[in-house]
Amino acid sequence: MSMLASLVRAYDRLSDAPPFGFSSEKIGFCVVLNADGSVASVEDLRGDDKKRSPKVMLVPQAVKRTAGISPNFLWDKSAYVLGVTAGEGKRTADEHAAFRGRHAELLVGEGDPGLLALQRFLEGWQAEDFAAPLWSEDMRDLNIVFALEDEYRDRFLHDRPAARALWRRIGAEGASDPQRCLVTGESGPVARLHPSIKGVWGAQSSGASLVSFNLDAFTSYGHDQGDNAPVSEAAAFAYGTVLNRYLDKDSGHRIQIGDASTVFWADCSEMVQAQEAELFFAALLDPTADEKLESAKIRSRLNDIRNGQRLSQVAPELAEGVRFHVLGLAPNAARLSVRFYWQDDFGRLTANFQKYLSDTAIDPPPRDGWPALWRYLLELASQGKRENVPPLIAGEWLRAILTGTTYPLTLLSTALMRLRADGEINALRCAILKSVLVRNLKMEVPVALDHANTNKGYVLGRLFAVYEEVQRAALGGINASIKDKFYGAASASPQKVFRALDSGAANHFGKLRKTSPGRAVNLEKLLTAITDLMAPGDDPIPASLSAAEQALFGIGYYHQRSDFFRKNDDKTVEVTQ
Fold this sequence. Notes:
This protein is α+β, with helices and mostly antiparallel strands. Helix content is 44%, strand content 13%. Among the domains are: 20-173, no CATH class; 344-439, no CATH class; 456-566, no CATH class.
């Protein structure tokens, strides 16, 4: 099933889906009119929350605006409705004129009292009339609707039967000749312009196009716009509506992974099972969602999944018959890029996710438990900021997790670059390094400290951690340790660094033997045990390490350094000879 077809099916399952031709929009104010077109009052529809959030309301579907001026029907922002804006407003007068002109044309011959009141209001309104106390400055640039004075509490002007009937006639008159829809296979008018998709992180706030044809290079056989790939207006409306719904921050169907705004949905005959599968998936990607997990009583089953049990054992009702879809979107100027689209059985998804968990398993784990998936990507970003996550990595990484295929090698190079840049060696970065080595390079990488591992990168990482511990034990707290000064060089070109580290360790041992002889003996034994693992030769320390060996260097350092912190300084460090 194609991406658009699956979204259309998802629209059909929405219990509160807006009808064709309508959309949910954020409305700030309502202008209440008398029958003669005069203003009875102006009502603030915003909520009482801290941000004074506009009210989400079902209105005639918004037009798609690019660079031109195009008014909505019976509602719009203040620049169109009243001719006022908070900004400079170079074309505000033209926008208001367009709103006034369109409604003057559409309302000709209408006898409905509400539509007549709006027509009279627009004929007499002047932007100079916008003044306190009737008109609030907060109205500028917010969306505005209308209502009659005697029915404001019951319905708005666009809800009146005459207004809805007029809106249907407008849609029918503007429809193109019917063609067969490539999404549904049914015949119907073709959407010339597809709906704007809002809520994608980094994209334009007014929305961006998922499907568009506006350059000659994108067209074929002289077709214009949507005729190049016929999608019916009903199908375009359906996929746009459900995608905008899923991209809402509180929808429960989205999660941000780097620059990829990721939405997901389940497709099965039972709505309860679909909702449970969606909650399961959200919890797998973000295990910190405690409230939702507890309320759904799935925490124990989620832990069973993370511990390796099959979905057929934990939740047999989800293992078969539940088709799952995951879509990653990223901004691309005024359009959207599909980072990835994946669909398969939910059982396959959980099996692939368990494979990812095995790839990233490392001991000791993060102090606060395994974090949300997006948290890993911050370890690849300069200054730990989301906007600095390297582009494309997020989508390629999540695609690899979902499909069980190889990870992007840029994960390895980027993680190594961050290690060399800031010297922060933690569980998340080491988990990333380990996952790429295991899956892409088919290497055996220890989960916990391996005293017998002879890989030169791993051994040198352990040795570097011992040198750092000797320095700390001898000198105590210092501003910059050998890790801060030499980690990058030691992991890439060890031969240049380890001689100096060994010389410095000899001096530190001299001091440590005087202050803590027992500790000195234990560290010397450990140092000897590690150097005995090195390959014999004139100089067992290589001139350089490959990228894979540098990754093992970081993992070896992390394992050995963590082992020091597990023990008290006065306890004997166990050494495997």
